[in-house]
Amino acid sequence: MATRIYLPDTSGGPGISPAVSASWQMTDASFNRIVAATTKSGTPHTIRVLANTAIYNNPSYGVKRQYIYGPIGQQTITGTVKGQIYCSESGLDLDAMRAMVIRVIAPDGVTVRGTLLSDLPVALA
After folding, report:
1. Cβ neighbours of residue 63 under 8 Å, at least 6 residues apart?
2. Measuring CA to CA, which residue among 105, 38, 49, 114 is closest to residue 76?
3. Beta bridge partners of 39
4. pLDDT in tens, 80-124
């Protein structure tokens, strides 16, 4: 059965702090880590503004937030990732895209056990 994972706006800091994927070229000044949830939150999402404007005229991947889910038991992970994330851009010079990296991290918070999805850029319409 599929596991639904919700991405709340706030839920406290996770117990581990994995490094962001090497695929990201910069970390935004307001970057944070949040615990992902398996239940919906009544807390409305707030607007997250990209603090680093250096990418406006220099296309690159910049990470804004990292969600941590787990721990999970030993298993084989297969299937499709489906989801909805609302994104918008307000800067006239910004051609923003969202991208996602899904990795399995060991309990030490450092060792990458595997990458399930890496850099899936999709231009915003």
Report:
1. 20, 21, 24, 26, 27, 28, 31
2. 114
3. none
4. 888 777 766 666 666 666 778 889 999 999 999 998 888 655 544
85 CB-near residues (< 8 Å, 6+ apart): 7, 98
Helix H, strand E, coil C: the string for 85-102 is: CCCCCCCCCCCCEECCCE
How confident is the model at residue 110, as a pLDDT?
Answer: 92
Q: Are 29 and 10 in contact (CB under 8 A)?
A: no
Q: 72, 56 in Cβ contact below 8 A?
A: no
Cα 91 to Cα 71: distance, rounded to the nearest angstrom: 38
**Residue 11 to residues 7, 17, 43, 85, 124, Cα–Cα distance (Å):** 9, 15, 10, 17, 27
Three-state SS for 41-55 is CCCCCCCCCCCCHHH
- Domain extent at residue 82: 1-125
As for how many domains the chain has, the answer is: 1
With bands split at pLDDT 50, 70 and 90, how would you rate the model's confidence at 59? low
107 Ramachandran zone, left/alpha/beta (phi>0; psi -120 to 50): alpha
